[in-house]
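Problem statement: downstream parser choked on a complex file, so we are re-checking the raw output for the alpha-D-galactopyranose run. The parser issue turned out to be on our end (a line-ending mismatch), but while we're here, posting the original submission so the record is complete.
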Amino acid sequence: MHNRVVAFAPGRVEILGNHTDYNEGVVLSAAIDCGVTASVHRLRQRQIEVSSQTNQRTASAHLDELSPSATEPWANYCFGVIRELMAVRWPVLGLGIEIASDLPVGAGLSSSAALEVATAFAAIDLANWSLPPMKIAQLCQKAENEFVGVKCGLLDQASSIFGEDNRAILLDFRSIAAQTYQLPDGVSLLLLNSGIPHALTGGEYNERREQCQAAAAALQVTALRDTTTTQVLNSDLDPLVKRRALHITGENERVFAGREALLAGDVDAFGELMFASHESSRHNFENSTPNLDALVEIAKSTNGVIGSRLTGGGFGGSTVSLIRSEVAQKIIDSMQKKYLRATGAQCSAILTRPSQGARILRRD
Ligand code: GLA
């Protein structure tokens, strides 16, 4: 039996398929090469103690009285996961967790899912246990939905777990399955943080979710996965709800087209789908911001950028661009300069390729 287990879970980038996960749709995503490390050890009391190197804070609670902390909300992701593990009879008496992260918070790269998944991987391994990977993703999602109170879909947790080097993940949220596809050589993913923090706890995310449900109900389908852009266009949905639905059907269609483009090695076709995705966010789903729009406009006029769109929930956060690796630094310098000129704001950059998903780093 090990005394200490260290696990790492990466952040994720959604490459195509925006807000489709909770509509039983499809997404192309990837794990990235930064994330959260959780180092766990047993405690002899029925206690959970979490400390974070990132914000230099600690939080603790009795394991039998876990309830969301109002003063240390960052710790709720760990508390929530441990509560879900206890519900499936995880056998550890008490747990100490030390957290470190190189993922920016609020950039829309799923630092919260990475924290949940790192905690779950480490805690499960410490107990000498194993659970199917998709089950771990669902358990973490449940923690976020019920304990943290954010009604996110399964995308972030599943992407953090199913990532593979140089491969995009196609997640199907109806069959709850993951498959990966090679990203052609010579291209990279550039993440640019608009500097406007994104917080899923804001009401917009849940509101969009309700509008999608309303659209599915009015169209008499189980979920928007069951309808197409043509059917929505020909429907008599209320104009706003219709635009919301068009975003989802369009995104599902673009994900399947994106898979074909990847299989054909056609990066230009893939890039066009990314630009179309952003346009649909801007116009149909209205989850973009002027700063995200500025980043995508700048991307369009920058040599070596193949495609670009907002990534994740929206309402702030980052864009993802598919770029030619050989001119990456030139692209970053030029886009940062143009962004500063256009908005007066700085955008930090992360240059990445799809990377391996969550894993155990060390057992002592
Ligand atoms: C956030 C949520 C995900 C997903 C995306 C939008 O990242 O956590 O579940 O809905 O937004 O695609």
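For whoever reads this later: The two ends are 9 Å apart (CA to CA).
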